């Protein structure tokens, strides 16, 4: 949620056909937000927030989902399934070698997309779970 780029988010909203008053409302929700930090009695200078969606609101998860669901437009060998901020990549093949090559290719595409969208893969929460049926 913290690194969602406002410009990319507004572009994604527009791509979905959300225009006019609704788009203006979302734009005003994201733009001109400011913050400062207090540590003990020290208050930092105010700074503009150019990324991230405000947490604790009902609109923020929707904006995040609109943003992250664009990952499904990638041309991957496997099937991507997203739920909130969790994503699963299902890959099948005739051999482990074929699956391994497909996973490597898909993960390269996913990593590139994440970088382009100012998002990051949490390696501590990333697993490969091989199954044989």
Automatic annotation (TrEMBL):
<dbReference type="GO" id="GO:0003964">
    <property type="term" value="F:RNA-directed DNA polymerase activity"/>
</dbReference>
<keyword id="KW-0548">Nucleotidyltransferase</keyword>
<dbReference type="InterPro" id="IPR000477">
    <property type="entry name" value="RT_dom"/>
</dbReference>
<feature type="domain" description="Reverse transcriptase">
    <location>
        <begin position="1"/>
        <end position="133"/>
    </location>
</feature>
<keyword id="KW-0695">RNA-directed DNA polymerase</keyword>
<keyword id="KW-0808">Transferase</keyword>
<dbReference type="Pfam" id="PF00078">
    <property type="entry name" value="RVT_1"/>
</dbReference>
<protein>
    <submittedName>
        <fullName>RNA-directed DNA polymerase from mobile element jockey</fullName>
    </submittedName>
</protein>
<dbReference type="InterPro" id="IPR043502">
    <property type="entry name" value="DNA/RNA_pol_sf"/>
</dbReference>
């Amino acid at each position: 949620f913290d690194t969602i780029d406002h410009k990319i988010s507004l572009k994604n909203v527009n791509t979905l056909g959300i225009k006019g008053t609704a788009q203006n409302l979302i734009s005003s929700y994201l733009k001109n937000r400011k913050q400062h930090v207090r540590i003990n009695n020290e208050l930092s200078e105010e700074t503009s927030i150019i990324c991230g969606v405000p947490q604790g609101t009902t609109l923020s998860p929707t904006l995040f989902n609109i943003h992250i669901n664009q990952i499904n437009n990638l041309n991957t060998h496997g099937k991507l399934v997203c739920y909130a901020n969790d994503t699963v990549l299902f890959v099948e093949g005739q051999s482990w070698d074929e699956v391994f090559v497909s996973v490597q290719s898909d993960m390269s595409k996913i990593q590139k997309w994440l970088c382009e969208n100012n998002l990051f893969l949490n390696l501590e929460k990333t697993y490969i779970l091989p199954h044989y049926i």
